[in-house]
Amino acid sequence: MSPNGTPKTVPNDRMIRTVALADVGRQVKLWKPFLILKYGHDSAHALLEALRVVRQKRKARRGALTDEEQDLLRAMLVMAASGLDSMTKQLIRDALPVFCRKDPTVLTSFQTFVSRQLKRDADGHLSGETSGLLARLLTAESVQSASINEYVESLTGGSLQSTDALFRVVGALGIPHTMIDEDRLKPIFDDRNDIIHGLDIDFEAPRRNRHSRTMGDMIRATNWLLLLAEEIYTNCENKLNQVQPTTPPDGV
C-alpha cells in the first residue's frame, strides 16, 4: 500500500483475489486472525463461483442478473465485510496486549483511554461506571492486564462496518490512518449496510424493487475489502515481528 492509502494494484473486477500471504511461519499470536483472513477470501471466492455455476446452467453469458444471482453477489460482499470485521477484532484481542506493552505509540493511546475512563464529572465525583472500573482494576491480580482487557473490550464491543470505527481501531493498533481510503470505502460500507439492514430494497426503482448490482462493481468492492484486511493483517504482523521474536508452533 502506498503512503496515501492507495493499493499498489487495483483490485480485479472479474475474480476474487487470493491471499498473498504464505501460511508458513505465521506468528503464533496471529494465527487466528490469519485464518479469518483466509476464510474471508475463500468464502467470497466460493460465492462468486456459485454465481458462475448458476449462470452456466441457465446458459447466460450476458444480460441482467436474476434476483437469485444478485443475492449471491450481495452475500459475497457481506462475507468480505464480515471477514474484515472479525479479523480486525481478533487482531485487537491477540496483538494489542503485546503492543500496549512494547509500542510507545500504542501505549500512549492506551493511557489516554484509561485516563478518560477515570475522569470525574463536573462536581469532582466518580460515576458508578467509573467506580466499578476502579474496583475491577484494583482487585485484579495484575492492574495492567486488567486495564488492557478493558481496552480490548471497548474496541471489540461494536461493529467495525464503518470507516469511523475502522479509523478508531486501526489507530489503537498503531497503524497509520492513511491505510484507510475513506472516499473509497464509505460507499462500500453503505452498500453493505443497505443489504444487511434494508434487504437492498429500493421502492423508487422503475422495474425491480431492489438495488441492481453489477458483477464487476461488486467483485471490485469485495476485493477492496479483502485487500484492506490483508494490509491491516500484514502491518500488525510486521509490527509484532519488530517488538517480539517469532515463536514457531509446537512441533515445528
Architecture overview:
The protein has 252 residues and is mainly α. The chain has one domain. Helix content is 63%, strand content 0%. It is built from eight helices and no strands. The longest helix has 36 residues. The chain starts with 30 loop residues before the first helix and ends in a 9-residue tail after the last helix. The N terminus and C terminus are likely disordered.
What order do the helices and strands come in, and which of them pair?
Layout: H1 31-57, H2 67-102, H3 104-117, H4 128-138, H5 143-156, H6 163-172, H7 182-198, H8 215-243
Helix pairs in contact: 1-2, 1-8, 2-3, 2-5, 2-7, 2-8
What is the ordering of alpha helices and beta strands?
HHHHHHHH
Q: Any idea what the radius of gyration is? A: 21 Å
Query: How many distinct helices?
Result: 8
- Roughly what is the average pLDDT, rounded to an integer? 85
Q: Give the overall shape, derived from the CA principal axes.
A: elongated
Separation of the first and last Cα atoms: 31 Å
Q: Biggest sheet, open or closed, and with what strands and sense?
A: none
